[in-house]
Design goal:
With about 220 residues, the chain is α/β, with parallel strands linked by helices. The protein folds into two domains: about 180 residues, TIM Barrel; about 30 residues. It contains nine helices and six strands; from the N terminus they run H-E-H-E-H-E-H-E-H-E-H-E-H-H-H. Helix 6 links the parallel strand 5 and strand 6. The longest helix has 18 residues. InterPro entries: AKR, Aldo/ket_reductase_CS, NAD(P)_OxRdtase_dom_sf, NADP_OxRdtase_dom.
């Protein structure tokens, strides 16, 4: 299975670099860090590029372990090994909960705090260059003001014309947090891609995907 995924990853990364892509987003939960690392190692020289010419983001879940610092450090070290790099440009806390707990579990606040502080410590070692979060709401970001040395560099959330999150975006803008969208095509939702306004613009510009993506720029 690993070899098959690698064969799919190689042409995808090669085509992305050729098209000008310089940001690559992965996560522990995607189970493809090693394949991405191998593909970049092979493809970067073919495009006269070096590691510092690309930006790599990965994500991890908070740890529910009492030994959270060691667990977070181990997870980051594994990502460094998988991605075949000495540093990661941006590490995000993937979700404001652990993989095991329910979203409304009050212990999640402690787990979020522990994960954020562990990543800030790792940032001092230069193994990661920036710390961010994903799927955080305003209440989660407000917590960080109480214990973090800095606010997150990034908050990566679902954002598209059917889910605009204006209040959250304004909060991030006002607090120096880069607001980064994912699922900008609404997970290929036909209600968005075939919307009357999108369809008219798509006919004019000969693309529906680019019309939808442009709303996030």
């Amino acid at each position: 299975m690993k070899q098959a995924i690698t064969f799919e990853m190689l042409p995808a990364v090669d085509a992305a670099l050729a098209a000008g892509y310089r940001l690559f987003d992965t996560a522990k939960f995607y189970f493809n860090e090693a394949e991405l690392g191998q593909a970049l190692e092979i493809c970067l020289p073919n495009h006269n590029l070096r590691r510092e010419d690309v930006f790599i983001t990965t994500k991890l879940y908070p740890s529910g372990s009492n030994n959270f610092l060691a667990e977070i450090e181990s997870t980051v070290e594994e990502s460094l090994h998988n991605l075949r790099t000495d540093y990661i440009d941006l590490v995000l806390i993937h979700f404001p909960k652990t993989k095991e707990t329910k979203l409304d579990d009050p212990k999640n606040a402690i787990h979020r705090r522990n994960a954020y502080l562990a990543l800030e410590k790792l940032k001092l070692s230069d193994k990661i260059h920036s710390v961010g979060v994903s799927n955080y709401e305003i209440r989660h970001l407000e917590e960080i003001k109480k214990y973090g040395q800095n606010m997150p560099a990034v908050n990566q959330v679902e954002y598209h014309p059917h889910f605009t999150r204006d209040e959250l975006k304004d909060y991030c803008d006002n607090n120096g947090i880069f607001f980064q969208a994912y699922s900008s095509l609404a997970r290929q939702n036909e209600d968005l891609l075939e919307h009357e306004i999108v369809s008219k613009l798509a006919e004019k510009y000969n693309t529906s995907a680019q019309v939808s993506l442009s709303t996030n720029v």
